[in-house]
């Protein structure tokens, strides 16, 4: 079975950083606005807003170099998880667990300030060590605003 996702989109805001309570592992989360491929005649292009979660060194990388509006690439897997909110209601979220991150802005956008010397330091792709990913129930959204529904 294969669970693989490749996305290119723009960050809707700067990545948010959190640390897990039990292992103090860094977790970055952000939302990618990914344009749909087809446009219905007479309508504007639609976009999907996809929640992304990044762990460990890749989370550090995203927090340092990813900024609102940048176009980035994400390779990862789809994951669904659930938790009980403050009112005891069961909540669900489907998100992408990123395993690789990259820059997808044009060369011109890069020259205008994005990615300065980043590729020299890290290369164009950062791999997330999948063996170090803690249990998914350690990371839960703190507000209903984090939910995609």
Segments where pLDDT lies below 50 for 5+ residues?
114-149
Which shape, going by the Cα principal axes? Answer: globular
What is the top-level CATH class? Answer: Mainly Beta
Over all CA atoms, what is the radius of gyration?
16 Å
| Sheet with most strands: strand arrangement | 1-3-4-6-5
Main beta sheet: strand number and arrangement? 5 strands, mixed, barrel
Summed up, the domain count is 1
Average pLDDT score: 80
Q: State the share of residues found in helices, binned by percent.
A: 10-25%
Helical run tally: 3
CATH superfamily: Nucleic acid-binding proteins
End-to-end gap? 28 Å
CATH architecture: Beta Barrel
**What percent strand?**
35-45%
Looking at CATH, which topology would you report? OB fold (Dihydrolipoamide Acetyltransferase, E2P)
The quaternary structure here is: single chain
Order of helices and strands: EEEEHEEHHE
In short:
This protein is mainly β and 149 residues long. Helices cover 13% and strands 41% of the residues.
């Amino acid at each position: 079975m294969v669970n693989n996702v490749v996305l290119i989109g723009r960050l809707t805001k700067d990545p948010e950083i959190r640390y897990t309570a039990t292992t103090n592992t860094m977790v970055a989360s952000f939302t990618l606005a990914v344009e749909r491929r087809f446009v219905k005649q007479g309508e504007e292009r639609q976009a999907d807003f996809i929640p992304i979660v990044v762990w460990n060194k890749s989370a550090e990388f995203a927090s340092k170099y990813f900024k609102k509006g940048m176009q980035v690439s994400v390779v990862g897997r789809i994951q669904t998880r659930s938790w009980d909110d403050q009112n005891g209601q069961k909540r669900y979220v489907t998100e992408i667990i990123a395993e690789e991150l990259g820059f997808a802005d044009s060369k011109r956008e890069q020259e205008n300030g994005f990615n300065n010397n980043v590729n020299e330091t890290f290369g164009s792709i950062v791999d997330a060590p999948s063996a170090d990913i803690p249990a998914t129930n350690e990371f839960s959204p703190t507000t209903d605003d984090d939910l995609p529904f």
